[in-house]
Design a protein that fits this description.
Strand order of the largest sheet: 3-2-1-4-5-6-7
CATH topology: Rossmann fold
CATH superfamily: NAD(P)-binding Rossmann-like Domain
Number of domains: 1
Bound molecules: nicotinamide-adenine-dinucleotide
Structural class: alpha/beta
Order of helices and strands: EHEHEHEHEHEHHHE
Shape: globular
Number of strands: 7
Radius of gyration: 18 Å
CATH architecture: 3-Layer(aba) Sandwich
Number of helices: 8
Helix content: 40-55%
Largest sheet: 7 strands, parallel
Length: 265
Amino acid sequence: MTDRDRFTGRVAIVTGAGSGIGAATARLLAQEGAAVTVADIDLARAANAVDAIAALGGTARAQHVDVSDPVGMQALVDDTVAAYGRLDILHNNAAALDQNARDQDVVTGDLDTWERVLAVNLTGTMLGCRVAIPAMLAVGGGAIVNTASAAAFYGSRTLAAYGTSKAGVVALTRYVATAYADRGIRCNAVAPGVVVDRAVQEADAGAPAPRLGPYVAGHLAGRLGYPEEVAAAVAYLASDDAAFVTGECLRIDGGLTVPSPLHHP
Ligand SMILES: NC(=O)c1ccc[n+]([C@@H]2O[C@H](COP(=O)([O-])OP(=O)(O)OC[C@H]3O[C@@H](n4cnc5c(N)ncnc54)[C@H](O)[C@@H]3O)[C@@H](O)[C@H]2O)c1
């Protein structure tokens, strides 16, 4: 447990929570008192994340979901409410990162890849909002935090579907924030730069041929981010500390999207 308890009595769902940013967020919310459903398409990963939370004294349950499946997403909310009695927080975080290698430009990329990336990253985020909002309204409101990306603000020769999906997540965040502000629901986003587990970064730095080095360039911080740093921002946006913040997209990117390339070559 931490010395803060911003989420005591609250119930959260985190998608894509078996690994990385989602796992770190689920852990932090639970450490600060939330009961958390750790949702992932890979149930074994979700179960491992739940074990890590339990080892810290937190309350969590694992649930399989493919966020692009409307029926599964409704079950995610229904089962969470059945288990913990309510829903206060949703972190829409899952993304189809397994598609990245096939996600090229609009001519060379295949249509199946485009549709899967949009279905998971953007439609999955919309479905999360769609099924969570009624449950949140039933308890007087709640907080949604969506994981976007620095890629939402750039062009690139590849990852056209990914970048487009994340720009859509930023827009969707504003639409949900606008439609439900008067009923007690806030909706915000985080846009991470390149984020890699600390242990992986340390192992890479000590490797004979480090592969993460090129990604550091451009991050004004001079390093990559850690999942816990994004989790801290998600927890802030999900908490009452951010009661006056909605429709925001908070860049947690070590300054990656700040300098003009014209003046910072
Ligand atoms: N790591 C980065 O550098 C970075 C940068 C910007 C944005 N992001 C975003 O952060 C989020 C988390 O990324 P991460 O780096 O922690 O990834 P990760 O690969 O560590 O975790 C993603 C998790 O999502 C799960 N998942 C994939 N498809 C799913 C689906 N259809 N339904 C449910 N779960 C599914 C995976 O099984 C995995 O456990 C993603 O939205 C990603 O786009 C990451």
